Amino acid sequence: NNTVHETTTKHMMSSTSSTEPILISEWIHRAIDEAARTSKSLNTEAEVTMAADVHKCMILCSDEYLLSALRVAYSLADWIFKAEENGSIILPIPSSDWSDGIIVAQLYQATKIGGVLTENGDPENLIKAEFLPSLLNSEGLNEINPVQYIYSLGIVFYEIFSGGERPVELLKEDRTTAVGSVGFDPLPFDEDTPIDFGNKLDIFDDLFNDDNLFCEDEGQHLPKKRQTHQNNSHHTRSSISVEQLKAKWIPGPLCDLIANMLDSTNGTLAGEDSYKSMMGVRDDLQLMLEKPAIFLYDQDMGRLSLSGLQFRDTVFGRDSELSTIKEAYRRSISGDGELVIISGASGSGKTMLATEFGKYVAAGGGIVLSGKFDQLKQGKPFSALASAFDLYCGNLMRDSGPLRTAEVALKLISSLGKEVYHLARIIPNLAIMLGPSKSELISHDQEVCANPQKQLQYLLCQFVDVISSSFDAPVTLFLDDLQWADIASIDAVNQLLFTPDLSSSLSKRSNRFFFFGCCCEGGINEQHPLWSVFCHANLLHVKYSNLQLRCFEEDTLNVMVSETLRLSPRLTWAFSSIVYRKTKGNPLFVSRLMLSLSKNGLLRPNLKRRRWEWDEKKIQSQKLPDDVAMFITNSIEAQTEDVKSSISVLSCFGA
Fold it and tell me: Average pLDDT of 249-253?
């Protein structure tokens, strides 16, 4: 083996190592100490005067401890879920004492390069927890209700996130559960689906028939003789409260998760939010780990009760389309000219998708020019292009400083000479950039051009080349509402896409330019100016993509609702189904409807529960128009006369 490593200089091999497994109780203590040492939210000087219990609470609710504890919790839930799915893996016997037989190990990914082992990756993401063989039932139990595992794991989670404390209710039961010389674990069973232990508990037959041995004293919950559902209809078997966790400042969603696990064994008395499967527990933990800002931490319900529902600038359900645009962009700036057109019905999220892609380009150092055509300005050539360049010049002056702005202005004058004035006439911010030089250029503006539109097309293309070379970055042009595009603007796009740069001092435009735009569904046909771009692309073997956005499927809509309300998808499914039936999955319609429901109090923040709630029956009974345009029209009609008059005046200015 040593010979192989000596002769293979680039030999690499990945392996996984782990620390010595420790009991979960010991892991909790070590994790608390580690969080206290590394947490940025804890002030070392303040610890001296801080009460010990307050200091511990601050550690338990710190990011360092919470995220590590969540990884342990996820590992356990995932292990049980996979064991249930597999069927052949031995599961632990349901018990309220699982913590005594759970071990935790820290895994490390290592890479061996030339015989040298180096650690890499984030070891915190590789925490693994599992059960000791002593907890596993080697002979198996028959037909154990899955909620018993959920309840047992819920007690473990309580201990993990409380810093090693057992629920006070179990501490009381621990002192009273021994019957004779036999210890009995008071795990609550679902009476509606009793567990069949076969002959395993025959020794308890006589005990269960003796009412005198099983009684319930005040403040203590002892095992009782089975009763019928009628006789026990007011008894909640899961009496463990999570109020102590809330008192330790553990995030509300995490407290709710544990409470819903402990409530799962209450059969017909269980709340609607209680868990029915381990998969639900695991999936919710995964969301808390992946998106803690959304699913783990508490919302400011006081603020939301005043402001109403708020939507984030997040694109849902468009991962495939976004990836397609990114790949086309990478190919285009690498030399393979390419363009993308996004089409879809009104409200399908075309502009939001384009904006998300623009963020990607800017984050990679690219330059984005963004304009929008207007139905009312179809007779004004270059309106959208001029708007795009004007916005860019304004941002350049604001973000790059006077020296860099002056450098670009001088380069424009050097490249275009006196003709740069023609651009300044349609791009106001460029006129500001040119500064004192503008007056000199005006004096030379005496020649009459035979074809002003062709001249402007050429100048705009040169402007793109100057921008690209000045910052050594590719330029992306985005034009919205292409169905209203004028011929002159599309001719300029044609020239940008397919005419090679004649200047030897600048990079070829095909390597530095990418075009994409949006149009409404069915807005472009053979008579549209953009059709010539497609024909030109075919002749030159330039690839173009037409992405058609459809309305959301029901599961995608539920993701949108879930993240907006910051609730688990399993909790928002019923509400999302109602919204889906009324909106047919149109993203804009969904957002407008939810805002309307929030305004009317049918979707409202619950300050006590610190989460959103809704009135399903009243929402279902609402009569809504079939499309988002009519819905928005009705919303405008509901405004006061002064508001409607202002909207009418503003609409005359166009988009």
Answer: 95
Contact (CB, 8 A) for 445 and 424? no
Residue 287 burial (CB count, 10 A): 18
Buried b (16+ CB within 10 A) or exposed e, 387-402: bbbbbbbbebbeeeee
* pLDDT, average across residues 384-410: 92
Helix axes 554-565, 569-583, angle to 10 degrees: 120
The Cα 565–Cα 441 span in angstroms is 57
- How high is the pLDDT of residue 645? 83
How far apart are alpha carbons 1 and 115 in whole angstroms?
9
Rounded Cα–Cα distance for residues 576 and 580 (Å): 6
Supply the pLDDT for residue 47: 55
The partner residues of 547 in beta bridges, in order of sequence, read: 342
State phi, psi for 231 to the nearest 5 degrees: -70, -20
Q: By the 8 A CB rule, do 317 and 344 touch?
A: no
Helix, strand, coil % over all residues of the chain, rounded to 5? 55, 10, 35
How far, in Å, CA of 488 to CA of 570, rounded?
52
3-51 pLDDT per residue, tens: 333 333 333 334 455 678 899 999 999 999 999 988 776 655 555 556 7
* Integer Cα distance of 129 and 106 in angstroms: 9
**Residue with the larger pLDDT of the pair 237 and 468:** 468
The DSSP element (H or E) to which 648 belongs, if any, is helix 641-651
Tell which residue, 573, 571, 366, 323, has the closest CA to residue 476: 366
* Nearest CA among 210, 163, 209, 216 for reference residue 186: 216
For residues 473 and 366, is the Cβ–Cβ distance under 8 A? yes
Residue 173 and residue 166: Cα distance in Å, rounded?
11
**8-state DSSP, 42:** S
| Alpha carbons 507 and 472: distance in angstroms, whole number | 9
Question: What contacts 247, CB < 8 A, 6 or more positions away?
Answer: 57
- Mean pLDDT over each residue of the chain, to the nearest integer: 80
Contact (Cβ atoms closer than 8 angstroms) between residue 20 and residue 105: yes
Measured between alpha carbons, how far is 170 from 176 in angstroms, rounded to an integer? 10
SS3 of 456, please?
Answer: helix
Mean pLDDT for the stretch of residues 344-363: 94
Return all residues near 365 (Cβ < 8 A) that are at least 6 apart: 473
pLDDT digits (tens, 9 = 90+) for 417-429: 888 888 998 999 9
Instruction: Report DSSP letters for 480-502, one per residue.
Output: E-GGG--HHHHHHHHHHHHSPP-
Structure tokens at 499: 């005419």
* 625-642 pLDDT tens trace: 777 778 888 788 778 888
How many residues are present in the chain? 655
pLDDT at residue 109, as a whole number: 58
Q: Give the β-pairing of 475-480 and 367-372.
A: parallel
| Residue 149 near residue 262 (C-beta atoms within 8 A) | no
**Residue 261 contacts residue 281 (beta carbons within 8 Å):** yes
238 or 358, greater pLDDT:
358
- Kindly give, in sequence order, each residue whose CB lies less than 8 Å from that of residue 199, ignoring residues fewer than 6 positions away: none
Residues 216, 224 contacting (CB under 8 angstroms):
yes
Looking at the predicted structure, is the pLDDT value of residue 119 above 80? no
Q: How far apart are CA 532 and CA 494, in angstroms?
A: 8
d(CA 590, CA 80): 37
Q: What angle do CA 311, 547, 313 make, to 5 degrees?
A: 15
- Asked if the model's pLDDT at residue 477 lies above 80, the reply is yes
